[in-house]
From TrEMBL, chains A, B:
Every GST C-terminal domain range: 90-220
Matches recorded under Pfam families: GST_C, GST_N
Annotated protein name in UniProt: glutathione transferase
Keyword field: Transferase
Boundaries of every GST N-terminal domain copy: 6-85
CDD domains referenced in this protein's UniProt entry, alphabetically: GST_C_Tau (cd03185), GST_N_Tau (cd03058)
Catalysis performed (reactions): RX + glutathione = an S-substituted glutathione + a halide anion + H(+)
GO biological process, one term: glutathione metabolic process
GO molecular function: glutathione transferase activity
């Protein structure tokens, strides 16, 4: 637990899946922190100074030391605060969790968003990305053996996959690209319902409606600019 | 040190920077292992079974348990064998090492190779990737404060950056794309010389000439097919 001597700050925006990952981990461990809302249209000096390479949120600042990249932040939180572990203790099981989290980012989320935003590209690029994301989802589906990826409790991979549980369905409803469905991925779909129903996750996932409006406006403007 | 009871196997190919990372870490820690040469043109059942998601090398197999993704493997090796640590002990310094290793892969190496192989794409795509890689190299240059990223000894980030020390200059000489030079990045350039001169690295980096011929043939065939 953070003591009074410690300064724990999260620079983020409401509505970012990567910021949400950090919020879930902090809440699971009972760490109190200050949330500094960033204006991505007019980035703060604090953000630019803390994460000059990517200039992106989340940035986690602990006692004036900034850390960027959501999965790197999760590892830091796990190593700094031992309570309610989100990673298994065995080096092999840790490697497995790191491997799947990387699959989620590189092979599921990135190609999914490339496919959605590929309205300017040719159909081949779009299909290639859909295929890549879909295949990786199949592997992730077969990796799910318990209630959660972490077993009976949510862990590192579940937290990483919040983007699949909440953001992917949202963007699907906007774009019409139906990739992650109950029919195609029944186990993952059930997992997503269980996960979003977890009291901590439920509290931290942003309200759907304003986010829907926000993403829809962005998507519509992209589509209309490509016509 | 691996005992007789342990089976330590690395599935790889000579000439892969990602396989070389794992070899350097194993050598630094004095771990004996069996190297299984993979035929990437005709992938083995062992590879396909061990890494069905990516079907790529390296795969590290320890007591029948396979681990993929070079940075994930490095973390596993570090956690399994404590001698000659490649990561600092402080959670913050660990996070810093993980952050820069990810920058190397995502912001330097990936866009560099996209720029090199973008002979079919338009000039804009090529320039965007060169710019991305070049900017990240500048940040990495300013991060280098000692002889090595690991301090006086080579560590996680140095090992991750073997691809910048050896493969990037090789591919530059083939493609003519001069991105990483002594003029532009004097500190990084000196680091690369020191690093390649380290006895363990020197022994494990593949012979340049056959690799040059191999990559050049691949590059020439790409260029001619795009004409």
């Amino acid at each position: 637990m953070a003591t009074n001597q410690e300064e724990v700050t999260l620079i983020g925006v409401v509505g970012s899946p990567f910021v949400c990952r950090v919020q879930i981990a902090l809440k699971l461990k009972g760490i109190e922190y200050k949330f500094v809302e960033e204006d991505l249209a007019n980035k703060s000096d604090l953000l630019l100074k803390s994460n000059p390479v990517h200039k992106k949120v989340p940035v986690f600042v602990h006692n004036d030391k900034p850390i960027s990249e959501s999965l790197v932040i999760l590892e830091y939180i796990e190593e700094t605060w031992n309570q309610n572990p989100i990673l298994p203790s065995s080096p092999y099981q840790k490697a497995v969790a790191r491997f799947w989290s990387k699959v989620i980012d590189d092979k599921i989320v990135a190609p999914f968003f490339r496919a959605v935003y590929a309205v300017n590209d040719d159909e081949k690029v779009r299909e290639k990305n859909i295929e890549e994301s879909s295949q990786a989802l199949e592997f992730l589906e077969s990796e799910l053996k318990d209630k959660f990826f972490g077993g009976e409790e949510i862990g590192f991979v579940d937290i990483a996959a919040v983007v699949i549980a909440f953001w992917v369905p949202l963007v699907q409803d906007i774009s019409g690209l139906q990739l992650f469905t109950a029919q195609k991925f029944p186990k993952l779909y059930n997992w997503s319902k269980e996960f979003l129903n977890h009291p901590i996750v439920k509290e931290l996932v942003p309200p759907r409606e304003p986010l829907f409006v926000y993403f829809k406006a962005k998507y519509d403007s992209l589509v209309s600019s490509s016509k």
